[in-house]
Amino acid sequence: MLDKNGIAKRIAREVKDGFYVNLGIGIPTLVANYVRDDIEVEFQSENGVLGMGPFPFEGEEDADLINAGKQTITTLKGASFFDSAMSFSMIRGQHVDLTILGAMEVAENGDIANWKIPGKMVKGMGGAMDLVASAENIIVAMMHTNREGESKLLKRCTLPLTGVGCVTKIVTNLAVLEVTKNGFKLLERAPGVSVEEIKNATEGALEIPDEVPEMVLN
Description:
The chain is an alpha/beta fold. It contains four helices and 13 strands. 39% of the residues are buried.
């Protein structure tokens, strides 16, 4: 199965030349490290940055350059900085081609829960709800199961929803899945992972084609 960097590598293959991409907190922030060098991509962060690059090397961090998760970042030539009003105008105006988010749960109909666990203190939902309400192409990066081994790909989400019927594709440490009208469709499996393992780790409805290829990460 994949680690977090492996998930990010696979999602990076979904990023196309000329895309404007919003990266959510967590695994999605790693995607910028693995995008092909021969394409031009603009990474947007909701705190007001367009033109993010990969993470800086140790010792080269600039505390004034951060993403929405308060991680230090680099910027590419031509990057721009702006206020939150401008940033959310980009998001709400549907000027972002691809949104990559983390999640705690995803339902078979594309619902996503990624902002709150009841009983735990949160500062707010951030930009998550604006992103899922405005984006038409949402890929979720997540672990397939929780620490107890229970599925996070469910028939129905149990946590407070961030968005309804909005997720298009999911990349986990076990598989790549598409959300369809019939539930999850298995597209690829992680290297060394069997279809049976994925089936056992998925609570929601799962369509399994006759041939399920292994992921290509390079």
